[in-house]
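Worked example 2:
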Amino acid sequence: MKILFLKKLTWILIVGVLFVSILPNIISNYWFIDIFSNFKLQYLIISIFLFLISLLFFNKKVLALILLSSTILWNSYFIAPYYFSDNTALKSKKQVKISSINLLSSNSEIDLVQNYIFEEDPDILILMEFTPNWQFKLNPIIDNYKYKKLVPRNDNFGIALLSKYEMNSSIDYFELNDKPSIVAVLNIGSDQFSLVATHPIPPINQHTFENRNKQLSNILNKRSKFSEKLIIAGDFNTSSFSNHFSKLTNGDLKDSRIGFGLLPTWPANYLMLQTTLDHFLISKNLEVIERSTGKNIGSDHLPINIIIGVN
């Protein structure tokens, strides 16, 4: 009886992991189904484990192995590209480091945040969930940056952009709602590039799901207004496994993690559930020298860093 129960449970898991792996990429316009697209690494690990169980203990194992092989191949299709570099070596004269941090408005680990920023010492710093309290606590750091655009708010959608390089910046709502993004034009060496720092609303229902997607697509709709070299950065509240993220890379933008791994960022305290919600999208004419995540600083998100080459 116990063995029969375990076999039935295994079959339920086999069908279930196949279902949650494939369905979000087939039916992607419903918020709750789209959430399941974020965890393909976990589905891959579960599928491999079930494959071994089926191989070792199932008498009639062919169907189980076919289903699990399909699940493994499906999830690997989305994951594998992040471990193979497509970066072309360019002869850049200068390296520029950009860090993006979701502070978490309720985060009380002020020292961890301050020490992390001092240690990393980015040339350009993006801060999300930037509240008046965070502005006060981080004033010593803010003062280190000559150019800045600060939009503190008492909710989770304050944002700040700090730069050591010449920067012209403005606030843009991208024709949607009252969640501000910052658009900047930076001149570094002989290069000029645009940077959009953004933090769409999390998809906790169908309305917020649609607003998240619209905000990201509205940024791309303004592509012609930005410099030829473009960076879009922030907490997108979607992983790269969603169809809605894939649309962002259909043109001249690419995910900066390609060749550097998945680099999961959320939830910071739960390794087994982690996926990547924080991103740097960059135009394909920019060289990515390094891409990484930072250490836990008390937020529910890990910081992200990128080093790009400029002339």
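DSSP finds nine helices and twelve strands in the chain. The longest strand covers residues 94-102.
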